[in-house]
Design brief:
Radius of gyration: 21 Å
Helix content: 40-55%
Strand content: 15-25%
Largest sheet: 7 strands, parallel
Number of strands: 13
CATH superfamily of the largest domain: Glycogen Phosphorylase B
Order of helices and strands: EHEHEHEHEHHEHEHEHEHEHEHEHEHHH
Distance between the termini: 24 Å
Number of helices: 16
Strand order of the largest sheet: 3-2-1-4-5-6-7
Oligomer: single chain
Shape: globular
Structural class: alpha/beta
CATH topology of the largest domain: Rossmann fold
């Protein structure tokens, strides 16, 4: 479709991130921004608050893809100077709808921009510290109450929001999406294996994400002695990394910790399976990325995971915190025929449900509704 003749062009939207950190929300926003711009050039403005850590993944990855990502300076968790900066940005960029991601962005936008239609995406309900649960409750009571539309990234998240009192008439579901990964050649893969000592490790199970509580990574490491022939790659970083490295040494299991990586395509290409042993999830980006790469997955049966992973078709669902069940699933994936069959099915499911183009079309409809 030619954007210049697209009569369904949505209103110009500000995509506002709470922070530029590496993670699923950053991946989601970059995919959405790129897809909106590809179909309707100039219709979306991507911006993020500065955050308080050194991690600037959103800005770095946007620049690498030739996308514009604006920074809204912020000193401290609630810098009041953000409010006039938001007003100036929406005025100069002639924004008609604001679409926020995570509680700080939602609350600041609701305060600074009462004259603009607000769309709030919920990427999951926190089960962690009481402080975060409290801020999410405030987001529901203030920002989501004022919002014209509230977007859930999964049916499971929609149901959780309904149970917490969000008005059903304003709720929409738009599932996470990921682009097709770039092609990775045999020489690049061989160099990656050699650089990390994986040439003699047999099959490789990939975890991609932050190394934090709740991801069940101890379960993955505990499963490796029961699933001989598998090595694990824990791609990412976080406060649990030293403890996980020590646990892997105690178990004497082949495990690689490459750290943070902006270009994950080679790791997905290298993997024989993607593993996500979380104790709770909404709709995890790593499983969408695995499907886009045509890889089978093993993941905990929690939250919106079954909306991505079809048990026995694109991978295996296992109970959270059960290393024996995870190991049994990995043992079944030792069969190359099963891996290929499930990888093909995963790619087909991605193509039908989780592409950035599908996400952009769904949210463009939400922006039109919000602006009416």
């Amino acid at each position: 479709m030619n954007p210049a003749h697209d009569t369904d062009t949505p209103p110009r939207v500000l995509l506002l991130a709470e922070s530029p950190y590496f993670g699923g929300i950053t991946t989601h926003l970059l995919a959405l921004h790129a897809a909106l711009e590809a179909r309707w050039p100039g219709v979306s403005v991507l911006a993020s608050l500065s955050g308080r850590r050194e991690d600037r993944s959103l800005f770095e990855q946007a620049a690498a893809r030739g996308l514009e990502a604006l920074e809204i300076p912020m000193s401290g968790p609630w810098d009041p100077r953000v409010l006039p900066r938001l007003r100036a940005l929406t005025r100069t960029r002639r924004v008609s709808v604001v679409h926020t991601h995570n509680y700080r962005a939602s609350l600041l936008a609701a305060t600074a921009l009462p004259h603009l239609p607000l769309v709030v995406t919920c990427h999951g309900i926190a089960a962690g510290p009481a402080r975060v649960r409290g801020w999410q409750a405030l987001e529901r009571g203030v920002a989501m109450r004022r919002a014209r539309r509230v977007v859930a990234c999964a049916d499971a998240v929609r149901d959780a929001l309904l149970a917490r009192g969000v008005a059903p008439g304003k709720l929409r579901v738009a599932r996470n999406a990921a682009p097709a990964p770039r092609a990775v050649g045999a020489e690049e893969l061989a160099a990656l294996r050699a650089r990390h000592g994986l040439e003699e490790c047999g099959l490789t199970a990939l975890y991609a994400g932050r190394l934090v509580e709740g991801k069940g990574l101890e379960t993955l490491l505990d499963a490796l002695p029961r699933a001989r022939g598998w090595a694990a790659v824990l791609l990412g970083d976080g406060p649990l990394r030293p403890a996980l490295e020590a646990h892997a040494r105690r178990l004497k299991v082949p495990t690689v910790f490459p750290g943070h990586c902006g270009d994950t395509a080679p790791w997905y290409a290298l993997a024989d399976a993607v593993v996500l042993p979380s104790l709770g999830e909404a709709l995890p980006m790593t499983l969408v990325e695995a499907a886009a790469a045509g890889k089978p997955a093993v993941a905990s049966q929690v939250g919106g995971v079954p909306e991505v992973l079809q048990d026995g078709v694109t991978g295996f669902l296992t109970p959270p915190g059960d290393p024996e069940a995870l190991a049994a699933a990995l043992r079944r994936l030792e069969d190359p025929g099963i891996r290929v069959r499930m990888g093909v099915a995963a790619r087909e499911r991605w193509h039908g449900h989780f592409t950035p183009e599908i996400l952009a079309a769904a949210l463009a409809a939400v922006y039109r509704e919000a602006s009416e």
